Structures are given as structure tokens and as C-alpha cells.
Amino acid sequence: MISDQVHNVLTTGIGHIGCASSSMRPFHADTLGICCDRQNSKIVCCLNKASSKQFIENLNLGSRVSVFVGIISHEAYNLKGNVIDLRDVNDDEIETCDELRKRIYGVYGELGIPENLADRYWLKKPDFAVVFSVDKVFVQTPGPEAGKQI
User: Which residues in 28-37 are b (16+ Cβ under 10 Å) and which e?
Assistant: First the structure.
């Protein structure tokens, strides 16, 4: 279900994850890294508890979530599914987040954005993982295919 192209954007792009409360109020959190198990169509979104508090408070096992992720070329995807685990981030996931941060800092540097400014977002500790099984993938890249389910 998760193609090479979608996997590449998931693991190199910037994303956010959303859910709805029981009263259908939307909440979202910024991801600090995304790990993808393509064989089992599972996604692990690494978050910072402190900056994701309202999102986490409205999330339960079985909740529906939606992850949007995009790269600087504007290529973007939306993946939806059910939460299957809420847990601490493991060492491999922290390493994935660190590698993404380093790559993003390189892109920011090319755009003239200094590290100390990027640190405000990217130096948050990834300490909470939302694991969900993907059942739908949508193209979000601007253009005639936007919104199309893959």
C-alpha cells in the first residue's frame, strides 16, 4: 500500500498528525520524525509530549488519525488509519528523528534559515510515539491529482 515514492516523502519530509475529539473538534501535532513499516502498512509518528499535549489528550487506541507529510518540492501525501499503539519512542526512532533534523537543517541552511531559529521547532525531544495502521493514502501534491486516493 505504501509505495517507494510515498515512503521517501514520509521519511524525508515534514509532517503533522491530526485527530478529532469525541465532539469532533480537530487537534494536531507536529511530527519530529516518521518511521514506516511498509510490509505491515504501519506508521510510527514521533512527537514531543509537551508540545503535543492537547492532541495526545484527545487520542485513544482505535482512534482515527491522519498524517500529512510533504517535501520542499511540494510533493505531499495524506495517510489515514487507526491507532494501534501509544508508547514511548525507542532508540532507533530517536536516531531517525536526529537524522531527519540534520537533513532538514541542511535544507534550511540553503534557504538562509539559521540553525538557532530552526532549533525552536526541531530541538524538541521526541518522547512519544503514535503507531497506526494505514488503510488509505491520498495524493496532496498541488495539481489535478490532489485529493486522489492511491
Answer: bbbbbbbbbe
- Alpha-carbon torsion 74, 94, 50, 34, what sign? positive
Where b means 16+ CB within 10 Å and e means fewer, 49-80 reads beebeebbebbeeebebbbbbbbeeebbbbbb
For each of the domains in the chain, give its residue range(s) and CATH number, in order of start: 4-139 (2.30.110.10)
Identify which of 38, 69, 9, 35 has the alpha carbon closest to the alpha carbon of residue 134: 38
pTM comes to 0.92
User: Helices 91-110 and 4-12: crossing angle, nearest 10°?
Assistant: 80
pLDDT band at 96 (very low <50, low <70, confident <90, very high): very high
Angle at CA of residue 77, ends 66 and 50, nearest 5°: 45
SS3 call for 109 = helix
> What is the pLDDT, as a whole number, of residue 22?
84
- Contact between 140 and 77 under an 8 Å Cβ cutoff? The reply is yes
Q: What integer pLDDT is reported at residue 129 of this predicted model?
A: 98
Residues 6+ apart with CB under 8 A from 8: none
C-alpha cell of residue 13: 519530509
Q: Is the pLDDT of residue 1 over 80?
A: no
